[in-house]
Amino acid sequence: HVCNQQRFGYINVPVKAHQTLEDERVNFVHLTLEAMVDGPPMQRSGHISIPPKPLTKLGFDEIFLINLVRRPDRRRRMLESLQELEIAARVVDAVDGSTLNSSDIKVLGVDLLPGYYDPFSGRTLTKGEVGCFLSHYNIWKEIASQGLQRALVFEDDVRFEVSFPARLRRLMEELEGARHDWDLVYLGRKQVNAEDEAPVEGVQNLVVAGYSYWTLAYAISLRGAQKLLAAKPLSKMLPVDEFLPIMYDKHPNEDYKQHFAPRDLQVFSAHPLLVYPTHYAGDSNWLSDTETSTIWDDDSKQTGWVGSQKTLRDPRDAGGHLRSASHDEL
């Protein structure tokens, strides 16, 4: 009999008649990545020897991986996943909001955007959200100071879709070839509104981004980083995934938007998405350092994910599955 209550191992997705050995290799890499999400990585036999994989930055000037020092398991999984994908990333220690007291936050120049409340739970900003914002903000500063023309940013809870490197390369090559001005491209996000988004002319699998949550993974240009910094967001902070839609003028709250000008960030999104979260609120292994935290200026007020919709699975998403047809999109 077949029992699906325990994990006994993995079987590679069979390739179709028209597919090649390269397709078989890509499927096997994806299987390996999925195994890392579900449990410890698979170990190669001691009887097999393979040369180390050459790592690349996929045409970007730098690839950043944001990780909290106290989450070494996430760091290890992401680095092993990126190595399987032959991607060279640099780990950036995230700002740990839990270590910041109210005085620290004030010294950093952080103040709450007037009138901000979480749209679902009604709570104000958490220390975890302050740390998350500062982590991305520090990367934007480095991009601007070093003059990096384009960079890639990953958080440490990313689940990659099949053929991620090839699909990302093609997307960016087509975007550059179409000569569209761009500041930021979501590779993974939660689309808030249900309506269709306009396709980008001359680029397959790219749309003009509407109101979105999450900062799982994105490409950002030098001009995009400069625009975000010029908005001086630390003195009027709200969660980073609320700030971005304000800057490309797709946030529904007009009161929030009036604090930022100009709101001319040019933002697109991969469609279908190239990455998804490893876990969602309610999953047995879900953990959020932004949702489960304390209020930004009051250590006594604990927060949790109950009431927030941001971290729930989007029923429209089909990511995170071993799909043998994914190569047909290449």
Automatic annotation (TrEMBL):
Pfam families: Glyco_transf_25 (PF01755)
MF GO annotations: transferase activity
Residue ranges constituting the Glycosyl transferase family domain according to the UniProt record: 61-243
Stored InterPro entries: Collagen_mod_GT25, Glyco_trans_25
Stretches with biased composition (Basic and acidic residues): 311-330
Key words, A-Z: Transferase
Span list, region Disordered: 298-330
Official protein name in the record: GT253 glycosyltransferase
Gene designation per UniProt: Cercam_0
